[in-house]
Amino acid sequence: MKNRVLFSLLILFTMVTLVQTIQAELIFDQHENVNYRFKCFDSDDNFCNPSSTVCTISIEKPDGTNAFENSTMTGFSTYFNHTLYTDDLGKYSAVLFCDSGSDAANTPFTYTITADGEPVRVFSPTFVAMLFGFLLLLYGIAVDHRFL
């Protein structure tokens, strides 16, 4: 009896540790004017010089068509800026490319456009598995204690 409770608690603890970590996501409201700022650094970890560095951005819409392709970003003293495309709902893929002549690098990222700027709430497979396991655990405890 005591071993079953300890085993059940161990299973519950293991299930809790399986929860996926929440990753930071870029989520914006549809038709919102989003000025995306990208900090560019050279190989010496200094800010890129906007007079000698060219940064471009390419954005692919959720339907696979291009919103922008190699569109030049505006350079400021510590960052580059571009207004993101936010008309269509869904997940966008983007690639930033910066070239100073001696250093060049690209940075891929994604952002999501929702109707209200809030994350879409869905049940992940991990959550469903944890819920099923918890209900199974409660059922086992109820049967063991003759509640059912």
Major sheet attributes? 5 strands, mixed
Indicate the low-confidence ranges by residue numbers: none
Class by SSE composition: alpha+beta
* Number of distinct helices: 2
Give the amount of beta strand, in percent: 25-35%
DSSP helix fraction: 10-25%
Q: Termini separation (Å)?
A: 17 Å
Just name the CATH architecture of the domain at 25-117: Sandwich
Strand order of the largest sheet: 1-8-7-3-4
Query: Mind telling me the CATH class of the domain at 25-117?
Result: Mainly Beta
Series of secondary-structure elements, N-terminal to C-terminal: HEEEEEEEEH
Mean pLDDT reading: 81
Oligomer: single chain
State the total count of DSSP E strands.
Answer: 8
Please give the radius of gyration in angstroms: 24 Å
CATH topological fold name of the domain at 25-117: Immunoglobulin-like
Q: Mind telling me the CATH superfamily name of the domain at 25-117?
A: Immunoglobulins
Shape: elongated
Could you provide a short overview of the structure?
Helices cover 24% and strands 34% of the residues. It is an alpha+beta fold and 148 residues long.
